Amino acid sequence: MRFRQFALLFSLGVMALTSRSFADEDIVSEQLRLCNTGSGYVAIHACSAMISSGIMSPTNLAYVFSNRAARYIDVGQIDDAISDLGQAISLDSKFTAAYDNRGNAYILKGEYDLALADFELALKLDPSDAVAIHGRGIAHEKKGDPDRAMSDYDEAIRLKPDDAAAYLSRGIARLRKGERDLAKADLDQSIRIRPTYSGALFLRGQIYQQMGDHKSAIADFDQVISLSPDSPSYFKRAQSYRELGDYDRAIADYGEVIRLTPNFEGGYYYRGLSYSIMGMSDLAINDLNRVVELKPAFEGGYYVRGRTYQKRGDFDHAIADFDKALNLQPEDAVVLNSRCYARAEQGEQLDSALADCSRALQIKASDAATLDSRGLVYLRLGRFDEAISDYNAALGYKPDQAASLFGRGIAKLRKGDTEGSKADIAAAEARDNQIRATFSAFGVTP
């Protein structure tokens, strides 16, 4: 969406400045420059001075109102912008761009019917007004009419094939329709036209993420951040770094997210998750504490904090966090399995552990991780046949799961199958040379 601004079409020499000094003329010249090229409130103040000067023709006054409206848009004062554009239209009823800009301002307010009305007025004045056709497409899309929107985007691009914004809008529409390859083609073209178009680069980066091409995604987010560093861009780049296993860079980017948006729980959550994966449990728990402070109803904060406690052997805190997560989402099979496994590792409340694993398997049947957890529960309960049965089932889904091989080896040994036990334990240790230490840590040894 673009707001059109105009250089004022007059020179100071033709203005009625007979009663003004040359100093006055210099002041007016500077106000004119700032109204034309300034930004934010500086430009608004300059345009306001020009409006109140009483020295302008109606046409130029319309341009000044339109320019001030564009600056009001920049600072988020949409109603003031709409008022100024109304003034511009009252001064020059054939001022096509004022209708375009007011239509786009109405879109920002969510008043799509009023936007459509302005675009239609602009098109009556100029049927080939690509800006109005593009804006009309956005309004149609916002109103839930993607076909009419797409038709308008196509026409806007036909009329103005170098309009990067129109390609971006069509790319967004195609992505919403599930046409990812066509959407990416539109974004590629948008970026070819305007290589520093951060909106197109950001969206293409997201498409690369969906495609699993995280290196290309990072390259696009790098450009966005170099142009306009903001929290969403750092967050998206961090997600790609995390997917590539580059946790140091991911953590650095999540740190920027937190600096820019300190009350966004997502930054703390994913940084905490990254710390947890890296074994930096104290830092992880600090971040996850902040997550549950900011969003107490977020199950994931309790779950990841619980897993972090579990990995360092603090089963009481882990189980307490899993309890909180399950209070929020009682049917979460993943959390039920984690609580089951924590109790199995701890060797306490094994009947409750068995109930958790069995419930998780009712919700998510054929899950190798949960079958392995229940196998450990049965092993600790001395129910070796049932342990072997669950381990067999788990290995049917994940033949290389070292924990299931090792646990089955112990169960077979307890039943007197020495050869079978040796084979399973050897196979487990071939896959994970730390598996014996893992089982020994919670008191289960051959």
Number of helices: 25
Under CATH at level 1, the class of the domain at 1-126 stands as Mainly Alpha
CATH homologous superfamily annotation of the domain at 1-126: Tetratricopeptide repeat domain
CATH architecture of the domain at 1-126: Alpha Horseshoe
What is the N-to-C order of secondary-structure elements (H for helix, E for strand)? Answer: HHHHHHHHHHHHHHHHHHHHHHHHH
Which percent range fits the helix content? over 70%
The low-confidence runs, each spanning 5 or more residues with pLDDT under 50, are 6-23
Quote the beta fraction. under 5%
- Please describe the biggest sheet, giving its number of strands, its sense, and whether it closes into a barrel: none
The secondary structure category is mainly alpha
The number of strands is 0
Separation, N- and C-terminal Cα atoms: 68 Å
Shape designation: elongated
What would you say this structure looks like, in words?
- The termini are far apart.
- The protein is mainly α.
- The protein has helices at residues 22-37, 40-52, 58-74, 78-91, 96-109, 112-125, 130-142, 146-159, 164-176, 180-193, 198-211, 214-227, 231-243, 247-260, 265-277, 281-294, 299-311, 315-328, 333-346, 350-363, 368-381, 384-397, 402-414, 418-431, 435-441.
- The longest helix is centred in the first third of the chain and has 17 residues, at 58-74.
- It contains 25 helices and no strands.
- Helix 21 (368-381) packs antiparallel against helix 22 (384-397) and helix 22 runs antiparallel to helix 23 (402-414).
